[in-house]
Amino acid sequence: MSTELTRNFSIIAHIDHGKTTLSDRLLEYTQTITERQQQDQLLDAMDLEREKGITIKSHPVAMKYKAKDGITYSLNLLDTPGHVDFSYEVARSLAACEGAILMIDAAQGVEAQTMANLHLAMEQNLTIIPVLNKIDLPAADVEKSKQQLEDILAIPAEEAIPASAKNGIGIEDILEAVVARVPPPVDNDDNLLRASVFDSIYDAFRGVISYVRVFSGTIKPRQRIKLFATDKTYEVKECGVFTPKMTKRDELIAGDVGYVIANMKSADEAKIGDTLTDSTHPCLEALPGYKEIQPMVFSGIYPVDSSDYENLKTAMGKLQINDAAFTFMSESSSALGFGFRCGFLGLLHMEIIQERLRREFNMDVISTYPSVIYEVTRTNGEELIVDNPSFLPEAQEIEEIREPMVRTFIMVPSEYIGDIMSLVMEKRGELTHTETIDDTRVMLTCELPLAEILVDFNDRMKSMTRGYGSMDYEHCGYRAAKMVKMDMLIAQEPVEAFSTIVHRDKAETYGRQLANKLKDVIPQQLFVVAIQACVGGKIVAAERISAMRKNVTAKCYGGDISRKRKLLEKQKKGKEKMKQFGKVSIPQEAFIKVLKND
Ligand SMILES: Nc1nc2c(ncn2[C@@H]2O[C@H](COP(=O)(O)OP(=O)(O)OP(=O)(O)O)[C@@H](O)[C@H]2O)c(=O)[nH]1
Asked: Which positions are tagged coiled coil (predicted)?
């Protein structure tokens, strides 16, 4: 079967540049959906996506388009998430395409994520169609955006298509460009089935649904298929395409983008990036690019009320079914009780999971300070991966610790360069490249430790630049660093919920901040309590809480025994909510306050 009339493409853009609006307009123009079916931003199906205004999951859709040459083409559009946490999904979706529409808001110009997403598309050798969107806005400056295309992205300005996704301007030009410029898929002539799984979801009624791009051969119901990563075989129950609703087809052929339902039990059996083939006539090699998604950021999530543990576990299980990138395993902490160690793709992903636990499952949770993954070489040559400070070996057993680094693109108005550079220095980063974007803006490329941008980097960059800065990052390997484990001792007892892995040069400052906070939240005891931040047995910061004798019955002179007893009862109850660390009792709220504040 010929793939001559098929075009597979994605839309990539900086957040808010109009990707979802353009997708909707393309569906409307090709009459894939009627205007009546059309709701605003149809492709962003999840509630949270709508609320946050960002696309999280990729949604493919098949369209028929009768071009000016009179021929009807099959167009497959793969929507991609805009945020860097999900760049793995962007890369997978792009691998299923031959072309990409690069959208640029003509009022804003090229932004940090425009660059990052364009790099991903160029790595896959895709044909790029630049679209200058929002030309209806008075602030739109098409000429300036064209100049930026040439200067920054090295894309010829005459290739750009001016458009307004909102008002439906330029839509036909975009579709014509897709047909004319994006090459049709190349069919492998051995006819063996090769399909790449670029997403999989779990549906309560239909089980696991794998989103696939067929590169060669065909998929049909009742065919036996095999997945490369697991070597497991399945029988195809149904296959079809997205219109955007799932629509059954008799077969999927080379070049098609669609879905396959086989008898799979859980979403992680159909791993994203895996290759699917026929089990009786398999292809010999998997398609390139199979890679497990690795969570980059870890944090403990604990139920505030310990009786919610089982409910929390069930809720996390449900979330994981549709989000293979989220991982969790049980862990316990003497301070927080039983909970889970969770892995995320990045901070936004972490925020989304926490928010969904609260909203969709009504869970009141507390999460510990986020940590990255460290690579550790022991003095005996053994290699370790450490995502939890408690598992870091003793300092004398460590030969080297390496931390994950990110290449960060920061686009800011020129007058803020100085401020941003000091922020980057403070965060142990290095400026590697500066480029002038236009007469008012520059783009700084920096290398920074991931751990340093986790918490407040983006917020501080935004407030420093009064909201005019934008940033994006990509992972760029590991680098050796002087990392140490810092313990907090309260009355000489280490409290592991507060242990962290920090850079040696920052241990004092961080230790002082934490000791100070703890001093405010730990109640006075009957004796002096020392709070000490300790690195390798050496105290780097300390605070003390003075002693107090809290005699709750002092005011009850005379013989009011029942009142006295009541007060003592009350005091006892209060104690139950405390956690005992050696001689000191710390109330649960103290942990929540310290950990939540960070
Ligand atoms: N004036 C104007 N506004 C537009 C146009 N296209 C999109 N918008 C608006 O820009 C905002 C962002 O558009 P979206 O389509 O959600 O952007 P997106 O790129 O899909 O965003 P993410 O899904 O977060 O990556 C919305 O408020 C749109 O209504 C346009 O051509 N003109």
From this structure: none
